[in-house]
Write a structure and sequence with these properties.
57% helix; 4-stranded antiparallel sheet; polysaccharide transmembrane transporter activity; coiled coil; Polysaccharide biosynthesis/export family protein; Poly_export_N; 5-stranded mixed sheet
Length: 416
């Protein structure tokens, strides 16, 4: 028994409504911007194809075509019977229409198959910059910049936020200690240069003269310089006094030597007279011998005096050489000290540079100072011509599949 002819019309209306309902549900489940969303590489689609056969009055499910598909790197969608179909830049509705028309034309169907195209999984978005976990993430509808940052773990911190703050405090403390040491070394270098130049006062350069700690450092280095100069002066003065004593001793010895020479001269005259008398037999020979012995003794004393004078002159030379050595040693010690100070100053300067870098790094990640730094967002998005363009964004700016979000935090803690 054949059904009433009106049955087929009724069935077709019901099936048409049912098919439309299925398509409506499929599109509404995909995304709120399905009509405007343009597909791209790595988008995954769920496709179902159904054909209403008027002659049989029944639906035909194209199970060989239906299934899940991914848009390839070339931007094409490859389906059985349909072949390679350009999909990048198109909407799901355009893909559905293309599939139905291609199948109808290829198989000469009187009724066009209806295709339901749904985005099963959007292509990922990417996030980079000053965030906790940069990388690739699955896209979710209604994604904004703020949500994307939350998905990536928030703004970059250390492996442990508290540890990063401690590192910042430690780096700042080390920087302060090194800065103080650098200042002290600079003042010490100034004192050494002043000593080498024979100055008695220290003048700090304008660059550091107004720093609060400098006056005390200058006073301390001035005291050190005064003490060193006083010690050297006392030692030189002692040598000078010794030299004066020796010079006076030489004068005294010279006078004694002259006296002895006059006595010898008188004794020789006396001996000459005695010798004449002795030849005449008027004086005994023992008196002549006594006079000669006396002259010999006086000549010996002169030799002793001259030896003492030479010894005193040698001591004077030694005192003078010791004074020269003291001055040279003092200058040499200052030169060595200056070389050491310069080396230490260079080392401290390098360490300060390292600490500044650590402070900048810790300061750029420490939550305690995040509020004091400006955060900028840039979305890199491909336009219709396939070229990537940068666009400034805010926390509420929508992020689309395939976008690259760059997050940067500008500024760093100020360092003295």
């Amino acid at each position: 028994m054949n059904p009433h002819p009106g049955f087929h019309r009724h069935a077709r209306r019901l099936l048409g409504v049912s098919g439309a309902l299925c398509l409506t549900l499929a599109f509404s489940a995909s995304t709120v911007f399905a009509d405007d969303y343009h597909l791209g590489t790595q988008d995954k689609l769920t496709i179902r194809v159904v054909e209403w056969q008027t002659v049989e009055g029944a639906f035909r499910d194209w199970s060989s075509v239906s299934g899940d598909y991914t848009i390839g790197p070339s931007g094409n969608l490859s389906l059985p019977f349909v072949g390679e179909t350009p999909a990048a830049g198109k909407t799901t509705a355009e893909i559905a229409e293309k599939i139905g028309k291609t199948l109808q034309d290829k198989f000469g169907l009187s009724d066009r198959p209806e295709a339901s195209v749904e985005v099963a999984q959007y292509r990922p978005f990417y996030i980079s910059g000053d965030i906790q976990a940069p990388g690739q993430y699955a896209y979710a509808p209604e994604l904004t910049v703020l949500k994307a940052i939350s998905i990536a773990g928030g703004m970059r911190r250390g492996a442990d936020g508290a540890r990063t703050e401690r590192e910042l405090i430690t780096a700042e403390g080390s920087h302060a200690v090194l800065s103080d040491e650098q200042l002290r070394l600079m003042v010490t270098q100034i004192r050494i240069e002043a000593e080498l130049a024979g100055k008695t006062e220290i003048a700090a350069p304008k660059a550091i003269a107004e720093l609060p700690a400098v006056p005390a450092m200058i006073a301390n280095e001035t005291a050190i310089m005064a003490s060193r100069q006083k010690k050297l002066t006392l030692r030189l003065q002692a040598l000078d006094n010794l030299k004066g004593l020796l010079e006076r001793e030489i004068v005294s010895l010279g006078q004694k030597s002259e006296t002895q020479k006059r006595q010898i001269e008188l004794a020789r005259k006396e001996l000459s007279g005695i010798g004449t008398l002795a030849q005449k037999g008027l004086v005994v020979n023992t008196r002549v011998l006594s006079a000669e012995r006396s002259i010999a003794e006086m000549e010996g004393k002169i030799l002793d005096l001259e030896t003492a004078m030479l010894r005193a002159k040698q001591d004077i030379s030694k005192a003078e050489q010791e004074a020269i050595d003291l001055k040279n040693d003092a200058e040499s010690e200052l030169a060595v000290e200056r070389q050491k100070i310069v080396a230490e100053l260079n080392a401290v300067t390098l360490k300060l540079g390292t600490q500044k870098g650590l402070i900048a790094e810790a300061g750029g990640t420490a939550p305690a100072i995040a509020g004091s730094q400006a955060i900028s967002y840039v979305l890199v998005r491909k336009s219709g011509d396939g070229k990537a363009k940068d666009m400034a964004a805010s926390e509420d700016t929508p992020v689309l599949p395939g976008d690259v979000l760059k997050v940067e935090r500008s500024g760093a803690p100020l360092m003295q």
